[in-house]
Structure to design on (362 residues):
């Protein structure tokens, strides 16, 4: 029961890359560090969001769907150096935002678009103090960059390329396990990173082309509690609570006049997930989980016109010899939001995410 149901709890992440706090797309995974022996996994996610709004002062003027579909790929590898010490490496598509206001919608900024990308490369070590308690920690190299084009009445009045810049952070945590009942509780802290980004482009406010501009953004610190436990024969409860310090994250567009900021958040976010997994046979298990993030209110940044969420996810895991294949689908009811400096109202939005994870022990 233990190994199969633990795989089911990991399934909660396989289709989770759909609208978490801020512009986070994936929480840095640490579950692979608890696999037995040497282990490698490949994960894939595809998300199709639908986010639209209208002008508060003129509701008939609509934005069309401003959120773009996207895909993510993640890699992780872990090896045991000895009976107590393990070392892991992971590449994770942690952050991202894709916004495009369709042309022909009649919206005042139709044609405006922006793309932001951030990834994390982490080296993680885990040390077993005894059979029940372990500590883990490591270094994270986080990169972020993107581009933005702003239109007004069909005229491009601002465009900029934000060069990807990396910063080094860290993570540290502790875990308690009781394998005979598939119990594991892990608490992990990840530090913030600060990025001084080089920006070049064109601005009607300068006016003309510009180079050598800079802008600084802090990507938030986070604290995550992951838990799972067997509650009956072949049945597991699992979940997580994740806090992120988004209130300190602001991304300005240099030389853009009133277009500042691209990203800003009035408050932090706490995201909750809880689910139950069931083993149907030695090879097949299933899981269902729900997620919740509180609606905060206020005005949100233009790269993420959403506020809060409620989600439902179902999936399954197939185990054969040293291979585990997990797949899931997640429906997200995206919270209503006010954006565009308070001029736009976004409501009735949703996203569908599908994900797959293939893991090998060797």
């Amino acid at each position: 029961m233990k190994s199969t149901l633990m795989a089911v709890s990991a399934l909660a992440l396989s289709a989770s890359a759909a609208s978490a706090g801020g512009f986070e797309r994936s929480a840095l995974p640490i579950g692979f560090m608890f696999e037995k022996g040497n282990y490698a996994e490949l994960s894939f996610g595809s998300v199709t969001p639908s986010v639209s709004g209208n002008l508060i002062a003129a509701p008939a003027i609509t934005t069309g769907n401003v959120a773009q579909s996207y895909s993510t790929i993640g890699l992780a590898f872990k090896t045991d150096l000895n009976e107590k010490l393990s070392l892991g490496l992971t590449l994770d598509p942690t952050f991202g935002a894709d916004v495009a206001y369709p042309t022909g919608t009649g919206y005042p900024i139709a044609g405006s678009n922006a793309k932001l990308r951030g990834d994390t490369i982490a080296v993680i070590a885990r040390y077993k103090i005894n059979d029940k308690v372990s500590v883990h920690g490591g270094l994270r190299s986080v990169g972020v960059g993107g581009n933005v084009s702003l239109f007004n009445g069909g005229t491009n009045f601002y465009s900029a390329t934000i060069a990807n810049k990396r910063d080094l952070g860290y993570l540290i945590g502790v875990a308690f396990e009781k394998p005979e009942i598939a119990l594991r509780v892990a608490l992990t802290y990840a530090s913030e990173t600060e990025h001084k980004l080089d920006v070049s482009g064109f601005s009607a406010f300068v006016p003309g082309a510009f180079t050598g501009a800079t802008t600084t953004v802090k990507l938030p610190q986070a604290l995550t509690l992951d838990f799972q436990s067997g509650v009956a024969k072949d049945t597991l409860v699992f979940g997580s609570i994740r806090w992120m310090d988004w209130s300190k994250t602001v991304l300005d567009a240099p030389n853009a006049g009133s277009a500042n900021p691209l990203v800003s958040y009035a408050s932090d976010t706490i995201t909750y997930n809880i689910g139950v997994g069931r083993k149907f046979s030695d090879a097949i298990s299933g899981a269902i989980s729900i997620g919740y993030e509180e609606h905060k209110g206020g005005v949100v940044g233009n790269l993420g016109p959403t506020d809060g969420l409620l989600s439902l996810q179902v999936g399954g895991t197939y185990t054969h010899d040293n291979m585990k294949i997990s797949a899931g689908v997640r429906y997200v009811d995206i919270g209503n939001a006010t954006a565009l400096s308070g001029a736009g109202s976004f409501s009735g939005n949703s996203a569908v995410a599908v994900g797959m994870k293939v893991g090998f022990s060797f």
